[in-house]
Structure formats: C-alpha cells, structure tokens
C-alpha cells in the first residue's frame, strides 16, 4: 500500500477518534505542541459533544466503530500500558469483541464452499449464530449421527480488511520510531508485527484447530482440564468444527455453586494450569477471560476459543520462573541477575541498584493477607520499574502478564481469598527443580551435545562455502572489483529523489493530523 493510502486511512481513523473525543486525555492535550493542538482541533470540527458519563467508553466506542482490525488493536493495546498509559489500558478492558452476526445464507455458503458439500449434506441441523465477534461467528449444528457440534465461520472478506489496516498500523509504528527515542525503546514496529502474526493465525481456522490440538496433547495428563474434540473432516481455512460443550460458564458463579462444584479447587486448577502451560510448555491460551471458560459436569475446566495464543522460548520460560521464584523466596539479587543474564537490562546499569528497586516492589507485599497479594500486579510493577533501567520491551512477556491479570481476576471471582503465590509456588518451584536440578542438567547437557554433533556434521559444507566465497572475492579483486563511479551514483540519487517526492508530499499533507495521532498513541 502506498504512503498516500496509509496517510488517508490513518486520517480517517483519527477523525473517528476525534469525533468520539478519544484521541487524548484532557490532561495531555494542554502539553502538546501548538501544531499538534491545531491538528487536533481540525480533526474535531463538527464533532458532537459527548456526555460526561460516557467518558470511560469513548475510546472503546471509537475502536468498535472503526471495525474488526481496530477492535483487535484495542485488545492488544490493553496489554501495553507502557505504550498507551495505565488509564487508557484500563479503559480498553471494557472493549467487547461483539458485533452483529452476518446473514445465515452467507454463513452456509462459506461452509459449502470450504468443505465442498452443501450444508444439508454435512449436517442434520444447522442453527443460527449463537455468538458473533469481529473475526468470526459460531453456529450450533448437529451431525447426521446426532452429535452436537460448534461451527465457527470467518466473516466474509475479513482478510482483505485486516491486510489493509495492518499496513496502516505498520506505517504509523514506523513514524513513531522515527519521531521518538522513547518510541524506539517501546518497539512499536515489533508490537505491530506481533499483532499481525497473531491475526494471520486467527484468520486461518486450521491454525486455531492445531493450537487446540497442541494444547490438548500438552495437557493430556493434567487433572481438572479437558478440551473440545476437533472434527478435522469438517474443518478448513475459514471453517472450524468442534465438539459442542454442554457446561456451565465460569462467569456464572451462582450456577457453579448450585451444581455443587468446588470453587476453591477450580480457582487453584485454573491458575496452576495456566502457569504449567506458560512455564512447562511455553505455549499458553492468551485469551482466558470468563467468557472463554466453562466447567463441565465432572468439574473439569474447558477453555474455548484458541485464536489468541502465546509462546515463550526456553530462555523466557526460565526467566519467568526464576523471577517469580526469586520474589517468593525474597532473593532480589537473584531476580536482578536473571534480568542481566537474559540481556533484558543493559550491562551499563548497576545490578545492586536494580536489586534495590526490586526490593521496593517485593517487600510491601510480604505479610499481606492472601486476598491482597497479586502476582499479576507485581509483574506490572516489575515491567514499569525495568523501563526506568532501559529494559527493552518484551511483547511476549507483556502478553503473558496481561493474561495473568485476567486469570488471577477470574480465580478471585471463584475464591475471594485466593492466594496466587501459594497456588503458583508448587508449579514454579517444581519446574525449577526439574529444569535446574541434576536431571535437568543432564538433559540440557544431552541437548547441547546433540547441537554440537549437528554443527560438526555441517562443518564441511560451511568450509566449502567459505572457500568458494574467498575464491569469488579474489577473482573480483584481480579484475578491478565492483566500482560505482560518480556519474552512476548521481543518477541513482536523482532517481531516489524522484520516487520520494510523492511520499514526502503525502507526509507533509497529513503532517499535523498524523503527528497528533502519533503523539496520542505515545501518550
């Protein structure tokens, strides 16, 4: 997409934000440079006044009006208070991914096109949509053998809309990094790339089926957890068919009590399962709000909707486990050293001062009642503190921290006296003992030996490539090498300037409004 098109799309989005009075919080507007304030005023021309009581929902309303891509962007930014600020991130917690369903005939046409047969030939019954979101909607259906299934179907043309909006988001992120050193530290380009990758997976329902299958396999020996069965023969890129789950929503605490479920046990199982997935498997469900959690008759937790998943490489899993364990045992020097060992905090910072800052986070929570101790809040404070020590933003850890906030909140609705530390210590300490203990050391040694063996096998090919490269360079040197004379360089420069004129003109034309929008995001 051209620069002009990106600028135009962002200007239209900025206009929607301005109409909802959602570009900037009032306390930030006053400190903007005069040109940015002027751009904001232009964008708000003719915008209706919003009543005071709707202030908290303005940003969410604007994102909903802008459509699926912006709803997903809002959900993603709710995990990044470092970019948009704590208040804005809190506002986005209210953003609901709900849209009106698309028509039944379109849904049935998609199923027939993707699966190669008419709906009547595949299902004995195919009901109307029971849930509709920005990406897809779900229908309850019944197979010819009588089994109930859930059929998830992508919205028509949703891929094209996302592709265009992602190009605009990338353009805006590039602008932020060019304008601001703080923007470069926050790595918005990487954040958009992470969002794009997540959306690419969500827009292929075969990938969601694979995520469900992988998580079910990882958890096959875990008590208290089950996963819907996948009907692979009724699954394609735009259609996913799974077992229909008849269970009680975890949000309905009264119904769970009435059914005789042990709420304290459910809270422990939920949190311990999440930590196992993150630390043991490095693969976790990153959208575990109450609407995606059910409890079956046997008291097993059934997670739904595997479109948003998180992954942690082994180094990140060890980092997470060690910092949590370090806070549990109050070893702040070790927590500090883990940050330096992982390369997250620059070596130019003082480990002793960093450990002192970590102590300021950890000590206030010691001795508090269980219901007052929050592991997710500790991680939030930790990432806020590390920013002061120039820690480069780690989007994957922020996604995990956001999910932990949600999981911990759900656990506390089940058990108001829930002790996150007690529930998590068994998982964290056990994994550390297994990974860093004698058996873990032997396993790592075996893996290192295997890696060295593979490298040794590849060595002849590497040496052969190096020899050929050396011969080529030597031949070029003998023939005078590759030269770029002054006339050629000037011609290249003129061509570059000619192709840049439209881009520069577009940036100037959208300058005031784009700066206002970028500054709004940065604030």
Q: Uncertain regions: pLDDT < 50 for 5+ in a row? A: 439-455, 499-523
Give average pLDDT, whole number. Answer: 78
The termini sit apart by 27 Å
Number of helical regions: 24
What proportion of the residues is helical, as a percent range? 55-70%
**How many beta-strand runs?**
9
Q: For the report, how would you describe the main beta sheet? A: 4 strands, antiparallel
Shape: globular
Radius of gyration: 27 Å
The neighbouring-strand order within the major sheet is: 1-2-3-4
- Structural class, by secondary structure, is alpha+beta
> What percentage of amino acids are in beta strands?
5-15%
Q: Which descriptors would you attach to this protein?
A:
single chain; 523 residues; alpha+beta; 8% strand; disordered C terminus
């Amino acid at each position: 997409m051209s620069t002009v098109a990106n600028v135009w799309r962002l200007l239209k989005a900025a206009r929607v934000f301005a109409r909802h009075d959602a570009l900037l919080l009032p306390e930030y507007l006053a400190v903007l440079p005069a040109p940015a304030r002027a751009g904001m005023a232009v964008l708000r021309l003719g915008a209706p006044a919003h009543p005071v009581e709707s202030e908290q929902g303005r940003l969410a309303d604007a994102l909903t009006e802008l459509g699926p891509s912006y709803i997903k962007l809002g959900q993603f930014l709710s995990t990044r208070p470092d970019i948009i600020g704590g208040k804005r991130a809190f506002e986005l917690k209210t953003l609901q991914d709900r849209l009106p369903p698309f028509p039944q005939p379109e849904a049935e046409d998609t199923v027939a096109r993707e699966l190669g047969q008419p709906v009547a030939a595949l299902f004995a019954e195919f009901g109307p949509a029971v849930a509709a979101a920005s990406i897809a909607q779900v229908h309850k259906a019944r197979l010819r053998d009588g089994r109930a299934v859930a059929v998830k179907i992508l919205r028509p043309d949703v891929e094209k809309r996302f592709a265009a909006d992602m190009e605009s988001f990338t353009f805006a992120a590039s602008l932020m990094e060019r304008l601001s050193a703080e923007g470069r530290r926050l790595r918005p380009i990487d954040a958009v790339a992470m969002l794009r990758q997540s959306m690419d997976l969500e827009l292929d329902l075969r990938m969601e089926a694979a995520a469900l299958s992988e998580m079910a396999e990882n958890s096959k020996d875990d008590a208290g957890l089950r996963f819907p069965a996948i009907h692979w023969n009724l699954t394609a890129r735009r259609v996913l068919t799974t077992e229909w789950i008849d269970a009680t929503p975890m949000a309905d605490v009264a119904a769970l009590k009435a059914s005789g479920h042990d709420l304290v046990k459910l809270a422990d199982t939920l949190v311990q399962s999440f930590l196992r997935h993150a630390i043991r498997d490095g693969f976790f469900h990153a959208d575990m709000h109450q609407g995606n959690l059910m409890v079956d008759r046997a008291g097993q937790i059934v997670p739904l909707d595997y479109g948003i998943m998180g992954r942690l490489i082994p180094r990140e899993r060890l980092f997470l486990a060690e910092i949590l364990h370090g806070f549990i045992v109050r070893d702040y020097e070790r927590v500090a050293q883990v940050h330096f060992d992982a390369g997250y905090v620059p070596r130019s910072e003082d480990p002793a001062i960093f450990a002192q800052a970590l102590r300021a986070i950890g000590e206030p929570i010691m001795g508090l009642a269980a219901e007052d101790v929050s592991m997710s809040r500790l991680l939030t404070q930790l990432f806020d503190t590390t920013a002061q020590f120039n820690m480069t933003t780690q989007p994957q850890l922020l996604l995990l921290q956001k999910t932990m906030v949600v999981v911990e909140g759900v656990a506390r609705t089940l058990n108001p006296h829930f002790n996150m530390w007690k529930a998590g210590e068994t998982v964290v300490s056990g994994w550390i003992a297994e990974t860093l203990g004698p058996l873990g050391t032997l396993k790592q040694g075996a893996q290192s030996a295997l890696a060295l063996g593979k490298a040794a096998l590849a060595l002849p090919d590497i040496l052969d490539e190096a020899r050929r490269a050396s011969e080529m360079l030597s031949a070029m040197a003998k023939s005078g090498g590759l030269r770029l004379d002054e006339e050629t360089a000037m011609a290249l420069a003129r061509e570059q300037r000619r192709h840049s004129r439209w881009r520069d003109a577009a940036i100037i034309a959208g300058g005031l409004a784009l700066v206002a929008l970028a500054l709004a995001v940065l604030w």
